[in-house]
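Tokens in:
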């Protein structure tokens, strides 16, 4: 099933995705949990759009933007790290639809060989979502992230094009 679609992020949507990224229910699951200022956000965007390895995308359903996805391709390898978050007002189930649509885009439009995800150990939703989407757990980095005074382990997930139908 692939409901909705993924398309390039527009500059006019930067403030919207910043408000999603800074929402407590999103930011607490990110590797960097500080509030991001608009100035920092614009600088990040201006650098990313100039970089052909970075793909900044919006997932939309029935004409409404529902989430943000970021693929970072490692040079010529066709291997990418991904990150994503749903709009804090998105209904439950959007994560699955966003994932299906984004991975179709990754393997069909971008012709990637592999997508890799890194998830903080307490992010049960994202771990469940990766498994549901067909990712394999490839390892765990023990106490690899230090956030808000606490060490957290990071789970590594990978999905090959050959495993995506
Ligand atoms: C991760 C995120 C996209 C999931 O969105 P969602 O709409 O809740 O996802 P879905 O409802 O489609 O759930 C997908 C799967 O995740 C898992 N899941 C969802 N909620 C869960 C929960 N409370 N506990 C454990 N697993 C859960 C389940 O495996 C679920 O599949 P199922 O409903 O068939 O059992 C969303 O919560 C989000 O944006 N979180 C903040 C940002 C983030 O964590 N990004 C990922 C960083 S690695």
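Residues out:
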């Amino acid at each position: 099933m692939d409901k909705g679609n993924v398309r390039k992020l527009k500059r006019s949507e930067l403030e919207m995705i910043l408000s999603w990224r800074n929402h407590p229910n999103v930011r607490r699951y990110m590797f960097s949990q500080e509030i991001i200022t608009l100035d920092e956000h614009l600088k990040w965007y201006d650098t990313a759009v100039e970089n052909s390895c970075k793909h900044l995308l919006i997932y939309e359903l029935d004409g409404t933007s529902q989430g943000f996805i970021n693929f970072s391709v490692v040079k010529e390898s066709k291997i990418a790290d991904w990150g994503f978050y749903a709009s804090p007002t998105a209904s439950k189930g959007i994560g699955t639809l966003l994932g299906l649509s984004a991975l179709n885009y990754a393997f069909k439009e971008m012709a990637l060989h592999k997508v890799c995800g890194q998830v903080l150990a307490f992010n049960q939703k994202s771990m469940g979502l990766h498994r549901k989407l067909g990712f394999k757990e490839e390892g765990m980095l023990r106490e690899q992230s230090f956030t808000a005074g606490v060490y957290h382990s990071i789970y590594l997930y990978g999905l090959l094009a050959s495993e995506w139908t």
